[in-house]
Amino acid sequence: MFGEIDNATIENGAPFVAGTYRKANPRASSRYTYFLPNKIPQTIDFHDRDVYMMLEHATSKVGELNAYSRLVPTLDRFITMHETKEATLSSYVEGTQTTLNEAMMSEGDLVQEQRDDWHEVQNYVHAMKYAVKQLKTRPLATNLIKDTHAILLKGVRGKSKTPGEMRRSQNWIGGNSIKHAHYIPPHTEHVDNLMSDLDNYINNNNVTPHLIKAAIIHYQFETIHPFLDGNGRIGRLLIPLYLIDKEQLDKPLLYISDYIAGHRMEYYESLDSARRDSDIEKWVKYFLTAISSTAQKGCLTLQKVIELQEGIALKMALLGRRVKLGLKVVNSLYEKPVTDSKQIAIEFQITPQTANMIISKLIGIGVLTQVAGHLRNRRYMFKPYVDLFNDDTVYDKEVR
Predict the structure, then answer these.
(1) DSSP-assigned letters across all residues of 38-70
(2) pLDDT of the chain along its 400 residues, tens only?
(3) Which domains occur in the chain, in start order?
(4) Interhelix angle for 210-224 vs 280-315, to 10°?
(5) Residue 336, SS3 per DSSP
(6) Cα–Cα distance between 301 and 320 in angstroms, integer?
(7) How far is CA 303 from the centre of its chain?
C-alpha cells in the first residue's frame, strides 16, 4: 500500500551499479562505444536519507490524489482532458508544438502546418486509452508496450521506424551522427534480454515501494531505448500504467510530463548521472519531486473543476425553460470541450435552430467561446474548463 513504507526494503539492498561501456564493431570503420546497463537489482541500497523523506512525501501526495479522485462525481468525464494534456506535454518534450487548445480541436479547424503535430498528439491519446484498457486483461510487459508503440507511431512521422517492433539497428541520443552522440544505448543484440529483465522487474512481487520501482522502470526503459522512435513518450507512459497495474491508482490521473517539460535539463542530467556515475539516488530524488508536484497539482485541478461545476450550476437558471437541455450540453462538454451546432443537434436530437439557441445562451453565461469558423462552421470551446488544465503549463509560456 502507498501509506506503508518500510525503509529496510530500500536500504538493505545492493549498491547500484549502472552498467559498462562497450566497443561496437571494433574492426569496422563505424566504431563507437555504447552503454550496456546491468540487469535491475531486486533491491537497491540508498544512502541519502533524503530519499526516504521524499518517498514518504510523494507517497502521501499520490494517496491524496487517489482518495480525492474517488470523491469527484462523474470523474470519467474529466479523464479525457488529463490524457490530452499529458499527450500534448509529453509530445512537447520531444519537440512537437501542438498546444492543449489545438489538441482539443478537430483536424479541419487547423492550418496544414499544424496537422502533423496534431496527429502525433491524437495518437498518444489513443495509445494511452488502449494501454489502460488492456491492463484489465494483460500484464504490463513487452508485448503490450510494443502494441502501444504501434498505435503511437501509426501514420505519423515515425511510421517508417518500425512501429511496434524492437529496434534492429543502433540508435543514439543527441548529435546529428553517432560519432557526436550524447548517449548511445545498448547494441541491438542486448535489447531483447534487457527488456525481458525489465518485464520480470515490473511484474515481480518484491517489497520495493512502488514509487521507487516506477522510477527505476522509467530509468531502465530510457536507458535501453528499445525503439527507433517514441522511447520518451512510451517511457513516461509506463509510469501511470505501472501504478494503475499495481492498483496504486484507480484512474490515469498522474502524469509527470508537465514537470519534466519545465525541468528538462535536470531530467536529462539526473538520468545521465545514474548511467555515468551510478548515482541512481539523484534520479530517484528528481522523480519523487516530480511525482509530489504532479500529484499536488492534480488535486488542485480536481478541486477547481468541482468549483467550476458549482459556479456554472448557479448560472444555469438564466437559461429559463432550457435549463435541462443546457445541463446536458454542459455535462457533455467536460468530456469533449470543443463543439458546434451540428454536433449538439445530432447528439441531443434537437433541431439546428434549437442547437444554435442553446449555444447562444451558453455564450451569454460564459461557458462557450467561439474559437474557429465565421458565418458557417463555427466552433465553440468550453474555455473556462480548458483553462484549468492550461494553467501554468510550459508550452503556453514558451511556444505561444
Answers:
(1) PPPPSSB----THHHHHHHHHHHHHHHHHHHHH
(2) 343 444 444 555 668 999 999 998 766 556 899 999 999 998 888 888 899 999 999 999 999 999 988 887 678 888 888 888 988 888 888 888 888 888 888 888 888 888 888 899 999 999 999 999 999 999 999 999 999 999 999 988 888 889 999 999 999 999 889 989 999 999 999 999 999 999 999 999 888 999 999 999 999 999 999 999 999 999 999 999 999 999 999 888 899 999 999 999 999 999 999 999 999 999 999 999 999 999 999 999 989 988 999 999 999 988 888 999 999 999 999 989 999 999 999 999 999 999 999 999 999 999 999 998 766 779 999 999 999 998 655 444 333 3
(3) 8-302 (1.10.3290.10), 315-390 (1.10.10.10)
(4) 110
(5) coil
(6) 30
(7) 21
Q: Which cell is 381 given?
A: 470551446
Residue 257: all three cell numbers together: 510530463
How many alpha carbons lie under 13 Å from residue 247 in its C-beta half-sphere?
A: 2
Distance CA(242)–CA(25), nearest Å, equals 36
Amino acid at 142: T
How far is it, in rounded angstroms, from Cα 251 to Cα 236?
Answer: 16
Strand ordering across the sheet containing 369-372? 338-339, 379-381, 369-372
C-alpha cell at 242: 505501472
CA dist., res. 307 & res. 320, Å (int) = 22
CB atoms within 10 A of CB 246: 16
Q: Show the cell assigned to 170.
A: 543502433
Cα-flanking dihedrals φ and ψ of residue 14, to 5°?
Answer: -85, 150
Amino acid at site 338: V
- Give CA–CA dist 61/296, Å, rounded: 6
